[in-house]
Amino acid sequence: MAASLTKASASCILQKTALLNLSSRGVCAYMVNRPRSNSVSNDTFQTSHRRSYASRAVLSDAQKEKLAQGPDLGDFISDDIPIAYDGEGGMKKVQGERLRLPKWLKTEIPMGKNYSRLKENLRDLNLHTVCEEAKCPNIGECWGGGEHGTATATIMVLGDECTRGCRFCSVKTSRAPPPPDPNEPLNTAKAIVSWGLDYVVLTSVDRDDLADGGSKHFAETVKQIKAQNSSILVECLTPDFRGDLEAVEVVLDSGLDVFAHNVETVSELQRFVRDPRANYKQSLSVLEHAKKYRPGVVTKTSLMLGLGETDEQIYAVLKDLRKIGVECLTLGQYMQPTKRHLQVKEYVHPDKFKYWEEVGNKLGFVYTASGPLVRSSYKAGEFFIKNLVEKRKSLV
């Protein structure tokens, strides 16, 4: 009995060795013909599979020529794939296909002295930016300073873990994030003053775990900035604070210059795009209350395109925003941050964005920034809004 087991084990080892040898030579199909019983001799096994390998490995001259003329690396990385185009030149998603990035959305890799200095400074002070967390395509231009050499970053207070899980956003989520860093408001102010900025954008994650939604922490950050340099203009891009208008007032009383809150998408797509705790009416109520409570404060919002919305739905949002007194509007292309997030339904052509800019201006927005790479805190809008704020202050 012992001898029989030893013989069977040896046969099994020999078979495995043969399989490994064949595998190393590029043959995987042998598994189909692998003997089901150890009763088959090792010689028979190896002979049959040598024949199998030979019959599969030897190619005819015609087959070799066909392979030589086949696709090369360029065929696999080519942009020439079937794509559906809309009437304005935009690219729409075909069923079962993933859209490739169009030329007008390709940006340079982040680099430069300003970029490196800013990133190192943020890490030293344990600060977070929405530029990094949301994988903003403009990070290289804004942090690097662009042609003017002025570095710009949007600081994200209240940590980097959000209590919500919107399907478009790549910021980390958690049901119980760490408590806010009490040193964050002061550290944020120090960083901003050291950069020599004259306009800064503050934003935050949603903190539904906090009684006030983090509004007091938000307000304290603004106060620290103004205390160190009162000439710095501060824009606050806030969450909806679960619709708590008192929390909105806390931020508005901080001394900020621009109050921003994003509606993100059209009314019909809210439940597919945003966390269930966020909704269109709630966002409108926050923006409307901000304007009523502080009429002199500039109000601002942002809309993503490319999620499947129609022109009629976009136009309806713009009219709703004007009814409640929103003055500044940005429209940009939605970009899928990871494979786990919502897919892009359409890459909207730059000409279409130009059209919406013209529509926004006709509807009465003081400023409309509309373009594929425009984001709610993109610096192109900050320079204009800065002048708008300063002009209003001079009239008071």
Question: Can you describe what's shown?
Answer:
The protein is of the alpha/beta class and 396 residues long. Helix content is 43%, strand content 12%. It has 15 helices and 13 strands. The strands form three sheets. The protein has an eight-stranded mixed sheet, sandwiched between helices. Strands 1-2-12 form a three-stranded antiparallel sheet, with no helix packed on it. Helix 9 links the parallel strand 7 and strand 8. Helix 1 runs parallel beside helix 2 and helix 10 crosses helix 12. The longest helix is centred in the N-terminal third of the chain and has 23 residues. It is globular and about 80 Å long. The termini are far apart.
Put the structure in a nutshell.
The chain has helices at 2-24, 42-57, 61-68, 73-77, 113-124, 130-133, 139-144, 184-195, 215-228, 245-252, 270-273, 280-293, 311-323, 350-363, 379-395; strands spanning 84-85, 91-92, 128-129, 154-157, 161-162, 172-173, 199-204, 233-237, 258-260, 298-305, 328-333, 346-347, 367-370.
